Amino acid sequence: MKHLKFYHVTKNAGTTIENMGGEEYKWGDYDAEYLQTHGPPICKNETSCYIKHYPLWSYKVNPYPLDKYDVFAVVRNPYSRIVSTFNYLFDAEKKLKFVPKMHERFMEPTPFWLNVFVFLLLFIYLSNDIEYVYSLQPQSYLFRHNKREYVNIILKFENLENEFNELMDRYDIDLKLDHTHRDNVSNKYVSEDDLTFLSRWIINYLFRDDFENFDYTMK
């Protein structure tokens, strides 16, 4: 059986999984030194470049080729992933120096600004500056490129405890996920119910491949 590696998609319980693996399994941040040796992509915004989030196909040399490793990742319903990201921004400003203060951008953690945030995403994508929002790239975009797969095991956030534990059993890894393992969880300032019809339409448009490939229902 091949060695198991983890690709961290933002706001999909990645920090929890990384910390569970720790130094023994070297997932995500714990493997950053190794990732650096494979020629990571140049970030447009150096202060907010998290190497572990960039698509594996964007490296000069793929650090986890599937002929050598099995690579797992977690996917999430696009609606809840967007909302979770918005909530995270207001918590991140308290602990990450590179995150601009939201109030300096006249934003507040309210339903109104959630929907403005979604609308702004549309303009960023249409301007073809997808690298600026690497943390919100469609999950399908991260896993496949030029008809080539870079992640071969997909777990769902909505059933993560069961699917993760089954995966660990399959690879004979002594790790168990339960409700006590929750790292980097954001406050819930807003929810999916706060998304307007227009915001849902935008998310459906931007993340249509995720809905189709991972069997999520558009609303």
- The CA-CA distance between the termini, in Å, is 40 Å
State the order of secondary-structure elements, H for helix, E for strand. EHHEHHHEEEHHH
**What can be said about the biggest beta sheet?**
3 strands, parallel
Q: Strand pairing plus helix content: what structural class?
A: mainly alpha
State which percent range the strand residues make up: 5-15%
Helicity, in percent? 25-40%
Low confidence ranges? 95-99
User: How many domain units?
Assistant: 1
Characterise this structure.
It is a single chain. This protein is mainly alpha-helical. Strand 3 and strand 4 (148-149) form a beta hairpin. The chain has a 3-stranded parallel sheet. The chain has one domain (3-213). Helix 4 (111-126) packs parallel to helix 7. It is built from 8 helices and 5 strands, in the order βααβαααβββααα. The N and C termini lie far apart (40 Å). The chain has helices at 14-25, 32-36, 78-92, 111-126, 139-143, 160-170, 197-206, 208-213, and strands at 3-6, 69-75, 144-145, 148-149, 153-156.
